[in-house]
Amino acid sequence: xxxxxxxxxxxxxxxxxxxxxxxxxxxxxxxxxxxxxxxxxxxxxxxxxxxxxxxxxxxxxxxxxxxxxxxxxxxxxxxxxxxxxxxxxxxxxxxxxxxxxxxxxxxxxxxxxxxxxxxxxxxxxxxxxxxxxxxxxxxxxxxxxxxxxxxxxxxxxxxxxxxxxxxxxxxxxxxxxxxxxxxxxxxxxxxxxxxxxxxxxxxxxxxxxxxxxxxxxxxxxxxxxxxxxxxxxxxxxxxxxxxxxxxxxxxxxxxxxxxxxxxxxxxxxxxxxxxxxxxxxxxxxxxxxxxxxxxxxxxxxxxxxxxxxxxxxxxxxxxxxxxxxxxxxxxxxxxxxxxxxxxxxxxxxxxxxxxxxxxxxxxxxxxxxxxxxxxxxxxxxxxxxxxxxxxxxxxxxxxxxxxxxxxxxxxxxxxxxxxxxxxxxxxxxxxxxxxxxxxxxxxxxxxxxxxxxxxxxxxxxxxxxxxxxxxxxxxxxxxxxxxxxxxxxxxxxxxxxxxxxxxxxxxxxxxxxxxxxxxxxxxxxxxxxxxxxxxxxxxxxxxxxxxxxxxxxxxxxxxxxxxxxxxxxxxxxxxxxxxxxxxxxxxxxxxxxxxxxxxxxxxxxxxxxxxxxxxxxxxxxxxxxxxxxxxxxxxxxxxxxxxxxxxxxxxxxxxxxxxxxxxxxxxxxxxxxxxxxxxxxxxxxxxxxxxxxxxxxxxxxxxxxxxxxxxxxxxxxxxxxxxxxxxxxxxxxxxxxxxxxxxxxxxxxxxxxxxxxxxxxxxxxxxxxxxxxxxxxxxxxxxxx
Amino acid sequence: xxxxxxxxxxxxxxxxxxxxxxxxxxxxxxxxxxxxxxxxxxxxxxxxxxxxxxxxxxxxxxxxxxxxxxxxxxxxxxxxxxxxxxxxxxxxxxxxxxxxxxxxxxxxxxxxxxxxxxxxxxxxxxxxxxxxxxxxxxxxxxxxxxxxxxxxxxxxxxxxxxxxxxxxxx
Lengths: 785, 170
Ligand code: FES
Ligand code: FES
Fold this sequence. Notes:
The complex is a heterodimer of chains A (785) and B (170). Chain A is an alpha+beta fold and 785 residues long. Chain A is 28% helix and 23% strand. Chain A folds into three domains: 3-26 and 478-625, Aldehyde oxidase/xanthine dehydrogenase, molybdopterin binding domain (Aldehyde Oxidoreductase, domain 4); 33-136 and 197-247 and 252-285, Aldehyde Oxidoreductase, domain 3, CATH 3.90.1170.50; 289-462 and 629-784, Aldehyde oxidase/xanthine dehydrogenase, molybdopterin binding domain (Aldehyde Oxidoreductase, domain 4, 2-Layer Sandwich). In chain A, the strands form seven sheets. In chain A, strands 3-5-1-12-9-10-11 form a seven-stranded mixed β-sheet, sandwiched between helices. Chain A has a five-stranded mixed β-sheet with strand order 7-15-14-13-8. In chain A, a hairpin with a 7-residue loop joins strand 23 (585-588) and strand 24. In chain A, helix 14 packs parallel to helix 15 (545-572) and helix 17 (667-687) crosses helix 18. Chain A starts with 18 loop residues before the first helix and ends with a helix. Chain B has 170 residues and is of the alpha+beta class. Chain B has two domains: 3-78, Beta-grasp domain (Ubiquitin-like (UB roll), Roll); 87-161, [2Fe-2S]-binding domain (DNA polymerase, domain 1). Helix content of chain B is 32%, strand content 15%. In chain B, strands 2-1-5-3-4 form a five-stranded mixed β-sheet, sandwiched between helices. Chain B is globular. Residues 166-170 of chain B have low confidence and may be disordered. Chains A and B meet through helix 1 and helix 17 of A and helix 2, helix 3, helix 4 and helix 5 of B. Bound molecules: FE2/S2 (inorganic) cluster (2 copies). One FE2/S2 (inorganic) cluster (FES) sits between chains B (98-104, 135-138) and A (197, 246-247, 501).
């Protein structure tokens, strides 16, 4: 019997093991690391979005009291280039140095570094550095960047085109020829700023030839690898620690300039160095997300059956390619655009463009929210065009339950799915049938009420290493786990995942507990320290941790369990087939009174004088798990909004979601992931936008101008779920970290546009702020008059 | 240097020579090594730095340390009494009101002050009260639940439980 057949802890709302230290202030975040003799790094950043660096005068800064070092790009070339981990066909990669040497390519590009005894001294000295800039023509808009004559961000590449990524299936031209209905829409997925609440920070010390580097990162092992390679240190001499990490959402899924710089400076200056981002600085120098402009055309029959989809998108990658940037608008976007629908013909051309803006990379959902928004918006446009209920248009085109495994027109295989029940449950929760009455009541109040549906499929569990290679991802998609049972029976789980809020210490303990027949309380989960890890870890992103890292833990635990059974059978003089491991005991089925304690077995494993013949002493197992396929969670989200007829202010009055992430390890954590994801997605729909002026200045440059949703901006959420197990992994788990963000943006936006549809409004670009809505209402009113 | 401040933090009195420009949050974090109070922004928007100053939730990044001379300050490290967690701490854990935990100290402190002034709040009042504390992880749903659940417990145990905020002069 395997442990998952009858789980005790998997599926339970186990209280989080992380919480006691976090609610008492005992958790250590990177900026909390204070070391004897620590110096502080400050970076001088270009105020210009595009400017040649003629000369940098550091003389005055060097004289400032407390200054340890003042360095420019040429002094720091030893740190090497920042890495890009993905190469897509025909890609024009950019040279990206931690400190720019020739020119600044976005406002915020670092041009000099100051190290001083205190933060204040470093800042004072930074102000004294005189940079002679020659401002150059600036390009901010990605489409304009691809026009002839546009300012070129990287001259050596000859153009701003990063890649052209076409994906085709079926006969799209015929689909449009045969179409009874065609709808088209320009769809803008605006640029967002991730805003993890903890700003990035890096600290490092170099002692006895060993570099210890703390960083607020989602990928400590990648940081270790690149720091070791770039700084010429053995990987065994670089210890990277991701301590408490205060949220990431993709923004800490990088090897950043500051990690290389702080490592290099600690090594060369011979004293500990720390850098902590200021929020305004982070807005410029930490990656942004999204930023697609798509022209979408859908061909259909009058009964709502989709015949074909054609999309042309330009993605703004910003001034440099970041670590995963080439894969976000391509691999993680284009393939999943068909969503839950059977689309017979598909023609997508994605182009990436360099501009003089902050680099764009993964932000929660990373490519998939853009896909879901695009398809769900055009589905509503189709419903509107043929006057069909949006729920029914979706239902009509769903891939049917018996069609799995399903090969999508974009070329991937969904292993499992059952989309209609999630839609039905969400409709019931939302009282969809009663909506028109509520719309009428709102109208009587002078308000506009709308309801919006979003049915999504997303792609998680990144990824089978061979699929990665075929797609141009320069790293395997496995995850590692080691389980060590000490002689006393104390259990430690070491994981290659690197949680920053997801609660892996708890969920992984639940998984291991069921396999080992002990309580999660007796299991310690350790992560984020490359000197403690099983070896190489890949990290936490793309909702992969459970479906890859959690399975690695499960498999390691099953291996240890197997040995526990063997030793137990030996000590109890029974057949291994009859041995039960349960409740901290090991006994022969039906004879629980003659049990051995779990600790007796582990002690025997290390005493090693009474083990089955040929058995190695010790009780631990290490697993590198490489999944056979991706996983495809799905669901339906429904938002209901009421818009104040006077002010245009939107209130989300009801939010219902039914998601299917397969088996849930800890439903409490699943719900938390959804709540947070939904709120971020609502943020995109209603509030958030990174806005540049034509000179490349970030107008939404602080938390005052960029509206991160507060508690008053979002409602309570009603959640439900269906459970369709994937057979991709033995636990049937899929991933839930990003689903909320993917499902919610189209639901909220569709609801607002539905509310305004009686005014003849078909589409408004996000964010749907009260000002924009107020203008749209006025324009529509004036249009009618 | 040259400025001397004396203040009580979590029941201990400290006297320190400081720069006049030092912020209260810097004094707490850097000088007193109380790193449970966090810094999440530079525009007093996020609330991660919230502490109780003379019983009132205060953004410690908006106050100079010299202004706290003579004040009584409670930080997250001072919420538990004799190793017994404050009801708000228990409620945050029970309701899964934290994920990464970075915003959590500030939110709990804001909630403690709020619940001292409004013992039976509605959900809308709770949401309004924490509007100045941003959380990017939880979507606030469980934070609202936690504050509601703490308020219920605090009503039941009122008079028995030692008060964090009310023990200081207001
Ligand atoms: S640090 Fe953000 S409000 Fe104080
Ligand atoms: S729990 Fe991460 S910001 Fe609130």
